[in-house]
Specification:
Elements: H1 12-20, H2 25-32, H3 52-62, H4 72-80
Helix pairs in contact: 1-2, 3-4
Length: 82
């Protein structure tokens, strides 16, 4: 049975599994709180359709350093792998 991590974590089992795989607490929490995190598919993500300014804003929200020097493709990679 999954440990209860409080109301800030929506899916405790998914959170624990991600932490066991070595993900940071922040990334595991973000993924486990995303309703569609488990879906699979070969389609481009929403990030590919955002403008560079929108990507910069998203990168700012999650605290990516050096974001203003990045190209659009680098921003997308940084956001996906944060």
């Amino acid at each position: 049975m999954a440990k209860n991590h409080g109301k800030q974590i929506k899916d405790d089992a998914k959170y624990e599994a991600l932490r066991e795989k070595g993900m940071s607490k922040e990334k595991a929490a973000r993924i486990s709180n995303t309703p569609a995190a488990g879906r699979k598919g070969g389609k481009a993500s929403d990030l590919d359709y955002l403008s560079k300014d929108q990507l910069l804003e998203e990168a700012k929200k999650i605290g990516i350093k050096g974001r203003h020097k990045m190209k659009k493709s680098e921003l997308i990679d940084a956001i996906r792998n944060h």
